[in-house]
Design goal:
CATH architecture of the largest domain: 3-Layer(aba) Sandwich
Distance between the termini: 127 Å
Helix content: 25-40%
Radius of gyration: 40 Å
CATH class of the largest domain: Alpha Beta
Mean pLDDT: 80
CATH superfamily of the largest domain: P-loop containing nucleotide triphosphate hydrolases
Shape: elongated
Structural class: alpha+beta
Length: 663
């Protein structure tokens, strides 16, 4: 056991397992020892089975590579081996390594049990893939931001900061077409080295990703030559500087950022991912506005909780991931109690809450949180508390303030930002109800308006997309069932809700008539509301089978309605029997009523008769004024108890124990 290995094993509290020492890796949160250490031919060698590079481990330990070597390599040309970078397939199986030597040079080698140390120089046909491939595949699938660096050392430096980073084997100018498909739909940040070859390489990678990645931006360090120098100087990833040259986002784009319409139309359609499907786009901004006490914070918190869990909200799928909720208006205790009533538990760690005063330099602070926590959704409750705009009606002020937030996520983060805002006083309708300048709705990607109806105290929600990205859609005014204990539920559009409500009132009215057929005019008079809406609801109830209809809908044969499946039950006491009124052609209610317990029944006057009016082909007949043969109730004499079953079908079940046609 060498002195170098002895010192390192002691420092890491390593345990011997056969011929290898195992320790917890200092480069990541390691609960089970994953760092294997042993003596090699020229010095101590180690490998983190969780995937940490040797540079990352050495950086975490704060030691130089030379401290691991106890003898020259003996190669005479390559110098000392400093570290080896593992390239694996999607499942994590080792394909090849790129080995860095000091003085700085690189060589490739592939696994070979028969070779020295288990490797043989060269690739021997091994498949070339991007660095940290399993993490790359998972990040793209989850909609996370991906960094492409120039070299493994830089990729590992970004990875130590908690982000997914990759590179291509061979460095600048060596990007291969087979790497590009791994970035389908990805949000990519290319970090260029601060030299002409580095910038040229970054632009070449961007061109090859155009039409494949969802978004590509190119940045370069604010300090030093590469991103490792940038971070070593104490700078943050959020301080990487966008290149002055416009980022290339499509094949065929020239140096000034222009593209021909033909090339533009030839690009594949790659829809932007959604944090809330069709409503909140990733790396975009939405605004939720309502008057006080309507429930905007309740809805915003419900959305945040369900995105954190990956559960649907408002009937839409969500992108699961960390959620940052900034409670800037309510006391901490109130926020805590509200989330508790909403069913949040300790298991909801994806939901991170900031409850307090607005931090100093709020936009800078938010940018740091986006970099550190990589959320999918940030909720700012409320917008005015965060921005502190002095005049919401000043177009320039509000657009500048909102764009400063939008710039933090547009092309740089997978997050959607949802700002909670107020609606103005008065009765302004729709999206004009949002308090302040039109610059508010003109800047955000999605506007959501929540309001409470005065007529029945129901809430409605509607959304408007500023630009209709693929999959985006406006939601018409829709009734929303919202409380702090259950998931927000949509109850149909306002028109559908009002129609269903009117149908229910019509059914309730007809249910009170004991199955007796009712004329349309009587139904319309008996139910409150606008005539046009009642007519529409009456037709809808008939078409749905909730009510029955008979008659032809014309004079002499009006439409009659009753609840489906009911029939009029005559009272046990007989109706008042009216003599036939001769010479009157219209049906109208009789003033007299008959009492049966606590119920009253009105009996229509029988249609008028035409005395001894012969019908064609007949002799003397008893006919109604329309020429229909009459029937007579059993036991009635003379002209009493007669009715027309065509004009007055409602009387048939009452007066027709025996159906004798009067002749």
């Amino acid at each position: 056991m060498s002195q170098q290995l002895d010192r390192l094993a002691e420092r890491l509290d390593a345990k011997r397992v056969g011929g290898t020492w195992m320790a917890r890796c200092p480069a990541h949160e390691d609960h089970t020892p994953s760092l294997a250490i042993k003596d090699g031919d020229t010095g101590v060698v180690f490998r983190c089975h969780a995937g940490c590079s040797q540079d990352a481990v050495l950086g975490a330990l704060g030691i130089e590579p030379r401290e691991l070597f106890y003898a020259p390599s003996g190669t005479g040309t390559l110098g000392r081996e400093v570290c080896a970078y593992d390239y694996t397939d999607e499942a994590g199986a080792l394909l090849f390594q790129i080995v860095r030597f000091e003085p700085k040079t690189f060589r490739m080698r592939h696994p070979d049990p028969t070779g020295p140390g288990g490797f043989t120089p060269g690739l021997n046909g091994a498949r070339k893939v991007p660095y940290h491939l399993p993490e790359l595949v998972a990040a793209v699938k989850a909609g996370q931001r991906v960094f492409i660096c120039e070299g493994e050392k830089d990729a590992d430096a970004v990875r130590v900061k908690g982000h997914v980073a990759t590179t291509n084997p061979g460095g600048a100018g060596k990007w291969r077409p087979e790497y590009t498909p791994f970035f389908q739909g990805a949000h990519v940040v290319i970090v260029a080295d601060c030299d002409e070859p580095g910038r040229a390489h970054a632009k070449d990678v961007a061109r090859q990703l155009a039409g494949v990645a969802a978004k590509v931006v190119i940045v370069e360090p604010a300090a030093g030559k590469d991103v490792s120098d940038h971070l070593a100087a104490g700078r943050k990833l959020a301080e990487l500087v966008p290149l002055d040259t416009p980022a290339v986002t499509a094949s065929g784009t020239d140096a000034d950022g222009f593209i021909s319409v033909g090339d533009l139309l030839a690009e594949p359609d790659n829809p932007n991912p959604w944090v809330v499907d069709g409503i909140l786009p990733a790396n975009g901004m939405g605004m939720l506005a309502a008057k006080p006490k309507v429930g905007k914070s309740t809805l915003a918190r419900a959305m945040g909780l369900r995105v954190a869990r990956g559960e649907p909200v408002l009937g839409r799928a969500t992108m699961q991931g960390p959620v940052l909720y900034l409670a800037l208006e309510d006391p901490r205790a109130a926020v805590k109690g509200h989330f508790r009533r909403m069913g949040a538990t300790k298991a909801d760690d994806n939901l991170q809450i900031f409850a307090g005063n607005v931090p100093e330099h709020a936009q800078v602070w938010l940018g740091e949180q986006l970099e550190k926590r990589d959320p999918v959704l940030v909720i700012i409750d409320t917008m005015q508390f965060f921005l502190g705009v002095t005049d919401l009606n000043d177009y320039s002020q509000v657009t500048t303030a909102l764009r400063s937030i939008l710039a933090l996520v547009r092309g740089k983060s997978r997050a959607a930002v949802l700002v909670v805002h107020h609606c103005g006083k008065g009765d302004r309708q729709g999206f004009d109800a949002v308090l302040g300048s039109t610059g508010l709705t003109g800047t955000v990607d999605t506007t959501i308006v929540l309001k409470r109806r005065h007529d029945d105290n129901t809430r409605t929600i509607c959304t408007q997309q500023r630009m209709h990205a693929p999959g985006g859609q406006d939601m018409p005014e829709t009734v929303l069932n919202l409380d702090e204990h259950t998931e927000p539920q949509l109850a149909g559009t306002r028109a559908e809700y009002d129609l269903a409500k009117m149908v229910a009132e019509i059914i309730a009215y007809l249910s009170k008539t004991a199955g007796e057929w009712q004329e349309r005019a009587d139904v319309l008079a008996g139910v409150e509301g606008k005539t046009q809406e009642k007519v529409k609801a009456l037709d809808a109830a008939f078409r749905s089978g909730d009510i029955e209809r008979q008659g032809e809908g014309k004079r002499g044969s009006p439409f009659l309605f009753r609840v489906s499946g009911t029939a009029f039950t005559p009272p046990q006491k007989p109706f008042f029997r009216s003599p036939t009124t001769v010479g009157t052609a219209e049906r109208k209610p009789l003033d007299a009523t008959t009492q049966d317990g606590t119920r009253s029944y009105s009996v229509p006057v029988f249609p008028a008769l035409r005395e001894n009016t012969p019908m064609p082909g007949t002799e003397t007949s008893r006919l109604c004024s329309k020429g229909h043969p009459l029937r007579q109730q059993a036991g009635a004499v003379g002209d009493t108890g007669r009715w027309c079953p065509v004009c007055s079908p409602v009387l048939t079940p009452i007066l027709a124990p025996t159906e004798t046609v009067a002749t």
